[in-house]
Amino acid sequence: MPPSSAQPDLGPILRKTTIVVFPPAFLLCLIHGIITNKAVPALGLIPLAGSALLGLFLLYRDKLAGGGSPIRLTFSQILIADTLLACVLFVILVISWIVVPDEYEGPPTMLGTYATVPLMINIACHCYLALRIVQSSLALASQHHSEYNGLMGTDRGAYTPISEADAISYQDVEEGNAQPLS
């Protein structure tokens, strides 16, 4: 269902969320990595930085859209970026869920658990944004298809009415009395 005009556009809000989440995630992941000498969830800082940069680029592009933005990204490129970031974050999150409980040392485990929260927030943001792009693309394709069919006259159902002269020639073909074409 395409977003109605009454609902606010969540795209910019979610892009800002990916930017705002990065600094606390950086601190939590870095401290957890230093204390435990484990690469995860600190490895999640790489896709989190990519997520924040993508958010900055897209918000900057939207801000400059009226004057002609120098940033040229298509919907398919944004879809690929959102999907890739969500997948990489999910893989790191699952690995974190496996590694962090193994060390069960009290405070470092709790710190590692808190460090995975920004990963979950960014996964949710990128999944929503990617699904929204897919949904709007499908809605546009459906609208384009129905407009094309309306223009071409093929939206009348399975059968198109034929003229009387054509009906007689088709009847001759069905009866086996077809005349050769000249």
What labels describe this entry?
single chain; 182 residues; mainly alpha; 5 helices; 71% helix; elongated
Largest sheet: none
Computed CA radius of gyration, to the nearest angstrom: 28 Å
How many helices? 5
Instruction: Report the structural category.
Output: mainly alpha
**Record field, number of beta strands:** 0
C-alpha termini separation: 53 Å
Q: Globular, elongated, flat, extended or rod-shaped: what is the shape?
A: elongated
Helix and strand succession? HHHHH
Low-confidence runs (pLDDT<50, min 5 residues)? none
Report the mean per-residue pLDDT as an integer: 80
Beta fraction of the residues?
Answer: under 5%
* Residues in helices, as a percent range: over 70%
Describe this structure in words.
There is one protein chain. The chain is mainly α. It contains five helices and no strands. Helix 1 (10-36) packs antiparallel against helix 2, helix 1 runs antiparallel to helix 4 and helix 3 packs antiparallel against helix 4. The model has no long low-confidence stretch (mean pLDDT 80).
Helix and strand layout, with pairings?
Layout (H helix, E strand, L loop, with lengths): L9 H27 L8 H20 L10 H25 L7 H46 L11 H12 L7
Give a short synopsis of this structure.
By secondary structure, the chain is an all-alpha fold. Helix content is about 70%, strand content about 0%. Helix 1 runs antiparallel to helix 4 and helix 2 runs antiparallel to helix 3.
